[in-house]
Amino acid sequence: MRTSAQDDQNRLVFGGEVVIIAAMLRTTRLLCALTLTTCIASLGCSDDQAGTDAATETGAETGTETSTETTDATSTDTTDTTETGPSCGDGIVEGDEACDGDDLGGQTCEGLDFIGGELSCADDCTLDTSACTSAECGNGVVEGDEVCDGDDLGGQTCVDLGFVDGELACADDCTATDDSACVMAECGNGVVEGDEGCDGDDFGGVTCVDFGWLGGDLSCNEDCTIDEVECVDQECGNDMIEEPEVCDGDDLGGVTCMDFGLEIGTPTCAGVCSMVVESGCAEEAEGDACMDNNDCPNDLPFCVAGFCWNGDEGDPCENPNDCGDEFPFCGLGECNSGEVEAPCDFDNDCGMDQPHCVMNACQPGNEGDPCDFDNDCEAEAPFCALGACSTGLQGQPCDFDNDCVAEAPFCVGNVCNAGNEGDPCVFSSDCTMMAPFCPDVSLTCSDGSVGDACDDNSECEDPNTCVADVCTAP
């Protein structure tokens, strides 16, 4: 009968824990018995041990059971602790694997700079991008890192790029837009464009008032920026002196004819409320004191400034009705003939042969006559440029392109030019299509022929090239 000690013979106690290893021992012994040489090499068994183990195993096979129990106070851990490396194919990205099966490490075709497609994993755990889709320049659709593609400009226009008009295109390689057909704002054409504040007489509808002034006139600089120098903090004509006015209408700031050494009359406020003049004053009255015309005799029919006058040249007046037939105009408070340089407040203070009141003097408006605006000039010299009436022909003065006629439409250096070969220019827009180039080295219009000045090849006619700033034949 088997005892309890025999029941425990296949158990080995290590540190209080029971580890069942009997089956392992039996298997090892059987292998040693069958292959003695292998046992000796792998377990270090001696010949005697091998024989004993073999006999024991033989006995076990024949029904005789022999057991061996070994207790060792110093236990030996026989657990296999060898670590294995990444295993490609287990579906988990490990080590230096880029992917493993369906595990792509979170990567996509788009993340690898493709525009779409299906990323997969190769058998060697490297990424397979063969099914990813690349951007195709020329298919008319902006893809990937393309800036544009054909007619697809990504919603951009010439205006978005700071131009005023034109047709935006796409470069052949889809990496940039082509703005060669876009139109820049042209300062001097009389039309406000782009970021221009003004152009000629076009101020875009704004006035001095829009800039916080009470009145005055805006002017436009040569670079199409607005000049407020003529704007004023006061309103001339409201009969109230406001800084920096000297007078305004009937408000003369206390100035009288006595201040001019004259006894009779009332001084006149002239200019843009900028000066008091003695017009309207006289050394002595021609007639007696009066309240109105009814108090004056026929030879002195006009009651002005409290005295009777005959309305001759220089007599004081408040309006033309205070002047006689020979001097029917009232300008700056005195009767006059309305001839050239006669004093005036308005155009209707001047005669028909010199119908323009410019700087308080009547002017004919002919070529070279002073002017403030185009309407101060007659049809023969319809442009007011640099303060004088001009014909706008080649060589005539100008402030802007619209001061010049069609035959010489470009204002360059304040002179009208035709824009032909050899004419001065600042930009290529100052030249005609017959001589479209304006090289910086010459600032004259050129057609790019051999011998013409140039900055680069683009300013030479094909097949000429720019060599040492001169268009040269190949």
What does this structure look like?
The chain has helices spanning 4-7, 22-34, 36-43, 47-61, and strands at 11-14, 17-20, 116-117, 120-121, 127-128, 132-133, 165-166, 169-170, 177-178, 182-183, 215-216, 219-220, 226-227, 231-232, 264-265, 268-270, 275-277, 281-282, 302-304, 307-309, 329-331, 334-336, 356-358, 361-363, 383-385, 388-390, 410-412, 415-417, 465-467, 470-472. It has 474 residues and is mostly beta strands. Among the domains are: 10-61, no CATH class; 257-364, no CATH class; 419-474, no CATH class. The strands form 15 sheets. A two-stranded antiparallel sheet has the order 1-2. A two-stranded antiparallel sheet has the order 3-6. Strands 4-5 form a two-stranded antiparallel sheet. A hairpin with a 2-residue loop joins strand 27 and strand 28. The longest helix is centred in the N-terminal third of the chain and has 15 residues, at 47-61. The radius of gyration is 54 Å and the shape is elongated. 29% of the residues are buried. Residues 1-25 and 30-79 have low confidence and may be disordered.
Gross morphology is elongated
Oligomer: single chain
Rounded mean pLDDT is: 81
**Order of strands across the main sheet:** 1-2
- Number of E-state strands: 30
Task: Note the gap between the termini.
Answer: 121 Å
Strand content: 15-25%
User: Which regions contain 5 or more consecutive residues with pLDDT less than 50?
Assistant: 1-25, 30-79
Helix and strand content put the structural class at mainly beta
Q: Helical region count?
A: 4
Rounded to an integer in angstroms, the radius of gyration calculated over CA atoms is 54 Å
The main pleated sheet reads as:
2 strands, antiparallel
Helicity range: under 10%
